[in-house]
Amino acid sequence: MERKEILLLLVFSCVYLKCFVQAEKCDPKPLIKQHEGYKRCVYLDTSKKRTIGYGFNMEKDGAREEFIKAGQRGHCQCIAEKVFDMFFKSPLTKCNKTCPCCCCKYSETSKDSCVPCLDDEYIERLLDSSLNTAIVDAGVVIGKSTFHALCCSVQNAIVDMAYNLGRTSFKKFEKFKAAIEKRDWDEAAYEAKNSIWCGQVKTRCTDISKIIKAGC
User: Fold this and answer.
1) Which residue pairs, CB below 8 angstroms and at least 24 apart, start in 29-35?
2) Can you tell me the distance from the alpha carbon of 211 to that of 202, in angstroms, rounded to the nearest whole number?
3) Higher model confidence: residue 22 or residue 165?
4) What's the predicted TM-score (pTM) here?
5) Minimal CB count within 10 Å: which of 44, 50, 187, 193?
6) What is the pLDDT of residues 41-67, one digit of tens each?
7) Residue 141's CB: how many other CB atoms inside 10 A?
8) Which tens digit of pLDDT belongs to each residue from 67-118?
């Protein structure tokens, strides 16, 4: 085979591999939806934080700005701000109860019989916003080169953890990070399970640990 043919073959191989890698983009959204559940009205999560949608924590840093930005597609900023305030002050619904959504505009006189509910599109935008943050956080905590070299199943599990924990709490999983770097799947799964977080989220932790234990 001539040198020119070899170079052409190498170029073709590189293009093919690049396309293959891009096609295999990871999608953690289904796993997060499975673990977070879905609620259109405000409830308290396991950490006693006001939450809505797919586990959107309304008390976290930057929650107001994130909520308002997600609502600006259909409303001006002043309306989006009022929507956040309305939900933040809304009566709580138990996490295992169906939302008694108001059929009319929310008001103080109706708060005992019904609560405001977000529409599906707004909730999906909040999920996408929080998911993008979780992907960035996962890369920062685990290390970008290490994280992006992992198979999708493990990447998705790690993003799920980052989504639920937030960057500050996830940073504390130093032994978990070290195990991931060594690709010691048994140790990484053990570190995930041997945590206070695991006792709080239970089934979620069990699922994530199984995925990580299976490794890449």
Assistant:
1) 29/127, 29/131, 31/156, 31/157, 31/160, 31/207, 32/127, 32/131, 32/134, 32/159, 32/160, 32/163, 33/127, 34/207, 35/160, 35/164, 35/201, 35/203, 35/204, 35/207
2) 15
3) 165
4) 0.78
5) 44
6) 999 988 889 999 999 999 998 899 999
7) 23
8) 988 875 544 455 667 888 889 998 999 888 888 887 544 444 444 568 889 9
Return the DSSP state at 197: H
Identity of the residue numbered 116: P
CA-to-CA distance for 75 and 81, rounded, in angstroms? Answer: 10
Q: How many residues does the chain have?
A: 216
Q: Cα(4)–Cα(53) distance, rounded to whole angstroms?
A: 57
Whether 65 contacts 59, CB under 8 Å? no
CA 7 to chain centre: 43
Here the tokens at position 215 are 């490794």
Burial of 171 (0-12, 13-18, 19+ CB in 10 A): middle
Of 67, 73, 43, 65, the C-alpha closest to 55 is 43
Pairing outcome for strands 50-53 and 56-57: antiparallel
Q: Which of 73, 96, 70, 97 is nearest to 87 (CA)?
A: 70
Residue with tokens 């920062």, as numbered in its chain = 140
Quote the DSSP letter at residue 103. S
How confident is the model at residue 96, as a pLDDT? 81
